[in-house]
UniProtKB/TrEMBL annotation:
InterPro entries: HTH_MarR-typ (IPR000835), WH-like_DNA-bd_sf (IPR036388), WH_DNA-bd_sf (IPR036390). This is MarR family transcriptional regulator. Pfam families: MarR (PF01047). GO terms for molecular function: DNA binding; DNA-binding transcription factor activity. SMART domains: HTH_MARR (SM00347). It comes from Exiguobacterium indicum. Residues 1-140 form the HTH marR-type domain. Keywords: DNA-binding, Transcription, Transcription regulation.
Length: 148
């Protein structure tokens, strides 16, 4: 990789870190939920779909079923998630949000809505399109690298 392009990518990483620090100030409103990073990541899966199995969670998060089981146990005790037996396979449970999980994601949605409203004042459609396409390409590439 040529030096200038590599330096630009390293600068981009530093800007992403700075953006993360700035966003953390807004998402501090979620601190009262007292979740670990892994617990937060698991709950974020429910933005994709309403019901998961532990096998699906393990595969998606790239962690062991044992680790998923430990995280789910804590989240269930704290009423963030609930389990419902799969009637077609009683050894399997469907995992869904419970009261605190719904409240957590609702608060996150409020924060994201506020931030989106703010970003509409500084980014035009073309800039958003470029950012989103670039992020998708980066995510896809990192997923490929992680699989190999």
């Amino acid at each position: 990789m040529e030096g200038s392009k590599k330096q630009d990518i390293l600068t981009m990483y530093r800007r992403i870190d700075e953006l993360d620090l700035q966003l953390a100030k807004f998402f501090a409103a979620l601190n009262p939920f007292a979740l670990s990073q892994q617990q937060e990541q698991l709950l974020l899966l429910f933005k994709r779909k309403d019901s998961w199995t532990s096998t699906e969670i393990a595969r998606t998060m790239g962690i062991s079923k044992s680790a998923v089981s430990q995280v789910l146990k804590i989240l269930e005790e704290r009423t963030f998630i609930k389990r419902r037996k799969n009637p077609a396979n009683l050894r399997e449970s469907f995992i869904q949000l419970d009261t605190n999980g719904v409240a957590y994601l609702r608060k996150m949605d409020e924060i994201e809505e506020q931030l989106a409203e703010e970003m509409t004042t500084i980014l035009d459609e073309m800039e958003l399109d470029i950012i989103n396409r670039s992020l998708v390409r980066m995510i896809d590439r990192f997923q490929e690298l992680h699989r190999s």
